[in-house]
């Protein structure tokens, strides 16, 4: 049951695609016609919490738990190793409940022994399960995903969300690696960011809407669907600015609907320290194959180097201070909420 659900998620994520209404078209980077730099001077290194990453792009959590998902994880892990990207595995709860499927997650560490790898569980996890997930893949950090709306739309999903915050707090206290709390495409906003900061969560991945849409995916999986919920959630541009009104730069990952170097650069210019991409990597891998996946990763890095050169910003940190103008719905939202 659980295993076929994972392949259904892959199937529908690809079939439905990404709307790219992640709000980043509201962000205008201010062009610099005298940049005083060269492509040779650009460094893509960044830090998230205490983690030093050689690329600001990370392969966000997707899968594991079945044979077919093992081959997806293997190809993504090889690409992560070759291109120096951090990578998260999909939720490991299935392997915690059935150790026979652990190999479909462990392949990520086997293929990339020295890389940065993130474990992943939902907020229903206990401290003991969190420790096992980290141990299973010798993870450098643990992602805890929040996906309340997805669970509610799934007929077989969770119905009670009592105690999420206190379970996350216990995990933060007892797990020996940094904990990253992430949404799966509905966004983390200011008040929740403050709650998470209060319990000691050091890093947020805002996981806004405009990319892979888990309301639409769950609705596509069943006949009597609640399609009227398909627009639920807050676009990534807005979630990012909300999170950054609480969290310091250096602690926020942007994700949700990011598909190319320009969208990544805009998120980094807004103040994210790294950018998570899931659906875009999956699409290239499944529809065009492994060579295209490696080419896509090169294009992302070369595209970022090109944009940073054009702007005269040699580091990701400097890119975060590039002048920009916020327009449209993102600007209106920020005005209404008093976020500058
Ligand atoms: C996901 N995502 C996800 N997230 C998570 O924390 N645990 C998980 O197990 C999964 N599973 C999963 C399966 C598939 C097939 C996809 C495409 C995605 C969510 C993912 O990490 C990310 O938050 C969202 O997909 C939004 O980013 P993109 O896809 O718009 O870049």
UniProtKB/TrEMBL annotation:
UniProt keyword terms in alphabetical order: Cytoplasm, Flavoprotein, FMN, Isomerase, Isoprene biosynthesis, Magnesium, Metal-binding, NADP
Subcellular location: Cytoplasm
Location of the FMN-dependent dehydrogenase domain: 166-322
Gene3D superfamilies tied to this protein: Aldolase class I
Binding residues for FMN: 61-63, 91, 120, 182, 212, 278-279
Binding site for substrate: 5-6, 150
Names of required cofactors: FMN; Mg(2+); NADPH
EC number of this enzyme: 5.3.3.2
Enzyme class: isomerase
Pfam families the UniProt entry points to: FMN_dh (PF01070)
Binding site for Mg(2+): 151
InterPro entries to which the protein is assigned, alphabetical: Aldolase_TIM, FMN-dep_DH, IPdP_isomerase
Catalytic activity: isopentenyl diphosphate = dimethylallyl diphosphate
General function of this protein: Involved in the biosynthesis of isoprenoids. Catalyzes the 1,3-allylic rearrangement of the homoallylic substrate isopentenyl (IPP) to its allylic isomer, dimethylallyl diphosphate (DMAPP).
Assembly notes: Homooctamer. Dimer of tetramers.
Family statement: Belongs to the IPP isomerase type 2 family.
NCBIfam families: IPP_isom_2
Designated name of the protein: Isopentenyl-diphosphate delta-isomerase
Gene: fni
